[in-house]
## 1
Amino acid sequence: MIRSLVIVLFSFCFSVGIYAESNVIEECNQEWVCLIQTKDEDGIQLSIRNHNPNPKVTNSVLLNATFVNFKTDISFPYFVVVKGPEPVYITKFFLEDRTKDAFHSFAFRVRPGDWDSVHDDSVSYLLPFARGIRAKVVQGYNGSVTHFGSFANAIDFGIPVGTPVHAARKGYVMATESKYTEGGFRKDLLSKANFIIIQHEDGTLGNYAHLMKNGVVVKVGDMIEAGQLIGYSGNTGYTQGPHLHFEVHKPNRQLEVTTIPTVFKTQYSERDTLKELFMYWHPRSGIDPIKADILEEDIQICKLNSKKERVQCGETSFRLGDNFLVSLEFVRPGTHRIELDISIEGKAFEAMKLDWVANKNLAIEARYVSITSNPKFTGRWKVRVQINGEEKKILFFDVRP
């Protein structure tokens, strides 16, 4: 996730005696905002504007000032929301004693978005990936790993590196990052995730994070339609594995992120609140909502390496001494009795039987089997899968010497 997009700038200025002539000084910080100081014989007028001239740009600014021999009618820190390209008047600092030296300095912090924005709760977001993709929520709202506090209303979708990421809602690209390569569960990687931030019409922001290196295909200033391709998922930043982090947020008065609950269009509903360990996809007319807890395509034989790590699923050919996994990925978690009958066609061996009850808190169930390095175990293997007493699928694969 993105912990901070706060920009800090210090501007120092000294003045001695009476200003001899009017002048304007403008100091800008990257693509965020610019401070405008207009000086005359009475003092300094301070304004602020967005650096980006696009009329849809909105930034929240926390402004601080230190001054000697000046007075003003506002107190600091001062909060202001800057919308569009026009300068926003802040105040005028009046010189108190023209015979004495005067000093002033300004510091500001910026976060994209409007802290006074009100989320349009009538919006139903699109799932942030392409049609035809099915993705499981690996960490949902109030998740125990990272989704708590300010980030309580964030969602992590478990999708492979390189999966196309699509905009969940129409908006304007406020910020992007795509230079990072590394990901891991280390605090030093908190600020090193690639991301795209899109500002919505109501002033809130959509954050798509942990994208792959060079995995951003839009640029700041682009207007994006809902469902448009914007990038590719990855595994950068503070992460335990490949996934797409999505949140809608706005800044608060402390310039911290405040995430906002959202609903999505899914196979279940036009306004669905996503749940952890459930699998979701874009609704298919005439097919959804499904009533099954598991789809046939999610019952697979997978190949394992020597460390018993899954390396490939859908395998139909193994060798003696290989390990395989019978994998069942449920659409939603629940308590299910699973029975596997494993046999070799034409061989008078008693079928191997595996029987267990699925943990209701899990969405993936699996059992692995080692193929003995004995020639009598070559041939065509058959795996009969039953769930809650109902036959769901028969899998076949060949074992060679």
## 2
Amino acid sequence: MGLLEKPKQQQKLQEFQAIILAGYGSSNRLYPITEDDNIPKALLPVANKPLISYTLDWLEKAGITDAFVLTQSMGNAQQKIAGYLARGYQGNVHCNLIGVDEDFGTADAIRSISDRITTDFIVLPCDLHCEMIPREFLDHHRINNPTMTGLFYEPPKGEKGSGKEDELAQYIGIDTAESRLVHIADCDSSEDGDLSLRMSLLWRFPRVKFHVNLLDAHVYIFQHWVLDLIKAKEKISSIRQDLVPLIVKCQYQRKLVENEDMDAALEDPLDTALSLSTVYDEFDENLLNEHDPYRSNFKSNIKVNTVIYRDGYCGRANTIAKYSEMNRLASKQGLSIRRVAETAEVTQKSQIGNDSLVGEYTKIAEKSSVKRSIIGAHCVIGKNVKIANSIIMDHVVLEDFVKLDGCIVCNNAKVLEGSSLTKCEVAGGYIVERKTEENGQKLVGFREAI
């Protein structure tokens, strides 16, 4: 287990601690751009900034300055992220980088650092880019004081990257009167696609609106006591698949609360206060409901709230398509960002579109064109090169007369003279031979197993 700590500027009383899940474990959906020869998921460039920098900026805007960054201890991901946090990150979030077993689920990873979490905590992925003002999300949690608050978002209509490789659609049931999340399940959880509900849910929450177009941002705020539940129940391995559904069901299932030894959730402080009142006329609902197996006076203090963001962009770069879309939106026309770095050398006869970016110390020779694309730092682009709808990472060489359309070319790769690639991903360090023509391929070098 490794640890990198950035010195705190001053000691502050923290309301929340953040846990950033920095792409540990499998990243198959981002293959081959997260191969060892390239860079870890957390450092993938989005508009020439590391992906995790957007998450850290979001936390800083929220006023959260204490974060644990969890990444896999195997491979070189931990070392590379450590280098960025020590030398490249210029923000004010104090980051503790910790390596965890790559086989750990998200809840397992949190369990492994539970003794270091001393406040309520927010869990979020390293691949999130959200335009929502973070204080709106935190204030909702502060006002309602639920056990958990989750962030969901509605993707824009016609959003690219909504194909088969995306997450499964979910049935999201929300009691709109209280913004309570009362049901969450994958839409394919039953063969016929029918939605099955417990009567206890309907008695407790009779007015529920179900959504199938919402996506889970995987951003959750938990009360500190949830750590005790995670530590006590080793069967809870995943936050999304194990912990969240359990907490949601405990809002209305008495037996589940009792079986999980969460009896404290049955105690209602209001009932206790009223029982001590000299003017309150206690009414025993048990007399009405003692013969009804579904409708009872069960009250759980467990409360799960939701915030739904619809007013701007919110998304995760957890697939190739979504990663490309995030780059497109981060560099679109009209944004007040520098299009061509001061140190870049672009000949006058080359054309750089106003929806493209060119990184530091990159050289672009004459009669080349760049449209709707992002080019990283220290790249060498030859003559008569045509680049469209593509992402070119750092230290890439594109020789003369190369054509790229809809491609991702990773660090230190070379595309030799006269090659034409369409919708291809070129792995880090890979060399594309002269006059290669490929469409829709993943170009990866063979490596022997160690």
## 3
Amino acid sequence: MSLSARLLGSLAPWRAAPAWHIALSGGLDSTVLLHLLAGLAQREALPPLCAIHIHHGLQAAADAWPAHCRELCAALSVPLHIEHVQVAPGASLERAARDARYGAFATALGVDEVLLTAQHRDDQAETLLFRLLRGAGVQGLSAMPAQRVLGAGQLVRPLLNCSRAELQAYATAHRLRWVDDPSNTDERFSRNYLRRQVLPALLSRWPQAGANMARSAAYLSEAGQLLDELAQQDLAGAEVAAELAWLPVPSLALPALRGLGEARQRNALRYWLRPFTTMPDSGHWAGWQALREAAADASPVWRLAEGELRRGDERLWWLSGDWLRTPPRLAQPVCAEQIVQLPGNGHVQIRGALPAGNWQLAYRQGGEQMLLAGRGRRDLKRVLNERRLPTFVRDRLPLLLLDGQVMALANLSGLHGPADGRWQLHWQPPTSDQGLS
């Protein structure tokens, strides 16, 4: 079957998409993908095509690539959009450039639109080998998915069943011109070393190694999907709503996880934590065991790359963003219906009519007491214990004071205002997401 026919078959599920965007670097692989699609568009009813070139500005040679892409797209009558990005400095230039590139792609995609990239079977084998050497688990060893969500649309890799040799033969037969990235020869980069030294040696001994590794990645992808389905089943009993419905922090009921074996606990937590943080390595999972086994009155913390997992009231709570920073001390005069922004801690509002007096917002400092109907004065610490408020919330829970005396605790039913409901203290806490806090 020809490359063109195989490409059309792999793209069948997305024929009704509003648009197809082609990630065009100007190199061999993306040039072949563009040429194939432009040819198919002449005889098939395809979604509108356009190309996107990302200019990273990381090397002098790249300055000539946008002009090359313009000439190529003009010859094929495919619109081209060129996006300039800034690459954030960091330990891995490759990763930073990739993050900038895919961030620009995500922004460019409209709802249900598709980004087509030109990774092929040899790239898949390279990715599998690279991740194997880094000690990846099943999810990592499934390598590059054929499709995934990107922004408001989908990222699709329609050439994963094609070899680089096939793309090279197609380019030669059609006399295509492409650019060569000088950085691809720099063997200080691990992927380049694998591509130029390790894979050729493997292929000289086992000619089918590339195809076999790509097939293994597909098997591992299926295994990963099955593990995800198992995690969803195991999490069903743990994702019951917390009593504190006003607390916008992801959480799980711990007893449901305790009933699972160790491996299934880790699998469920990996699945649940995946949207929040990169996964810990195998040695770091001792932090989970310590969190799980800590005494009931302890406040254990498991610190991960992008946040931390806390335990409280037999629940696991994921904290990130503002929740990891102590808000500045609060001593804020307040009046009724006023919305007060709390630095690093959301905002509060008093709903209803406050009596005259010296009203003030504050946080707990220790030693406070509160007058409770029929119970007299009670230490605030004991009151919060009775309400089973997680410890990470207590020092940022807004208090309403009158002449220095605690009159209300935000959001806690029966304690957030007088019994007659004349006024209530409402708090909108920060989210547990850095982008939304």
